[in-house]
Design a protein that fits this description.
347 residues, Arc Repressor Mutant, subunit A, seven-stranded mixed sheet, two-stranded antiparallel ribbon, globular, DJ-1/PfpI
Length: 347
């Protein structure tokens, strides 16, 4: 792989505690532990190095289905760049003291911390979520709020990125958060390749709802797939919600209801997210100026590109291209500031 020899692998350590859910451990292994031949030639820095660790020599997994042994001791956390804390089968039972101490120590030295599902209880118990936004499984929201009132809980989203601390909701959202981390560390092109191997949606925005109602259809319907594919092929055009509704042969109000039911977002929210995703891919290729990226992705202007990329990805386009661009030399941009946007909501 095209990796710089001077760089060392990013060390991810997943703590496994009594009662941990095997699915979350499997997600960590799938995303951060497997070899990635599909990324040959795409990586600009080394892939992750994953280790599992525990406070005891053997760990009984959720419901006693099986035990894990032969993994690293808890001291492995001391060398981790990213620490995945354990989730809890019964969130009202706190993790062991040594696990909490390891999490606190990792936080104090600046390691990135993340939790899947009820793992937010572990982070909160360790005190690292005080004053921060976080999420957890919707089923445990009331219990979480009552125990940790100093945490700003949002139980309606898939995941929350607070920089050094990231939390995901239910089990499937662990994949969303993991891919989000890969996207931030290695770029959209690499994250998309990993998602394809996992046969999983390449990008679901963290702000999407956890629980999306999917009422049983009264008749066979094709769903939103045809109109989504149609729009994805025309992202550089000034599409409106009315355009999407017309393509789907429904009213704008009906389209809004179907997006809410099937995707947990609005048509405009989905359209903007797809345009930002396309802009990221174009920035990585490094062949276009910022004005050209904005126009080709349907974001209109370099100013709007900067605004939306910072909102959705957390960095500006120049920084994104510097970190993930395939070319070392960046094309210049002579774009002028603008406040206009080519993304319009039909009224």
């Amino acid at each position: 792989m095209s990796q710089e020899s001077s760089q060392s692998a990013h060390r991810v350590v997943a703590i496994v505690d009594d009662g941990s859910n095997p699915f979350e451990v499997g997600v960590a292994t799938e995303l951060f532990g497997l070899r990635r031949p599909e990324l040959e030639g795409r990586l600009r820095k080394p892939w992750y190095e994953l280790r599992l660790c525990s406070a005891t020599p053997t760990v009984s997994m959720h419901a006693g289905f099986f035990t894990i042994s032969g993994i690293a001791p808890l001291e492995a956390v001391e060398e981790a760049d990213t620490v995945l804390v354990p989730n809890r089968p019964d969130p009202e039972v706190p993790p062991s003291g040594p696990v909490l101490d390891a999490v606190r120590t990792a936080a104090s030295r600046g390691a990135r911390l993340m939790s899947f599902c009820t793992g937010a209880f572990t982070l909160a118990e360790a005190g690292v979520l005080d004053g921060r936004r976080a999420t957890t499984h919707w089923r445990w929201a009331d219990v979480f709020r009552s125990r940790f009132p100093r945490v700003d809980l949002d139980p309606d989203v898939l995941y929350i990125d607070e920089g050094s601390v990231l939390t995901a909701a239910g089990s499937a959202a662990a994949l969303d958060l993991g891919l989000h981390i890969i996207r931030n560390d290695h770029g959209a092109d690499v994250a998309n390749a990993v998602s394809r191997r996992a046969v999983f949606a390449g990008h679901r925005d963290g702000g999407q709802r956890q629980f999306v109602e999917r009422p049983v259809a009264r008749r066979a319907e094709a769903g939103l797939a045809p109109v989504l594919e149609w729009a994805q092929a025309r992202l550089d055009q000034p599409l409106t919600v009315r355009d999407l509704a017309r393509r789907a042969s429904v009213s704008p109000a009906t389209l809004h209801r179907r997006f809410a039911a099937e995707l947990g977002t609005t048509p405009l929210g989905w359209l903007t997210g797809e345009r930002v995703r396309l802009a990221c891919l174009l920035l990585e290729k490094g062949e276009l100026t910022l004005d050209q990226v904005a126009a080709s992705s349907g974001l209109g202007t370099a100013s709007n590109l900067r605004l939306l990329l910072r909102k959705h990805v957390g960095v500006n386009p120049t920084e994104y291209r510097r970190r993930f661009g395939h070319r070392q030399r960046q094309p210049s941009s002579l774009s002028a500031p603008s406040t206009s946007s080519s993304v319009h909501e039909a009224r």
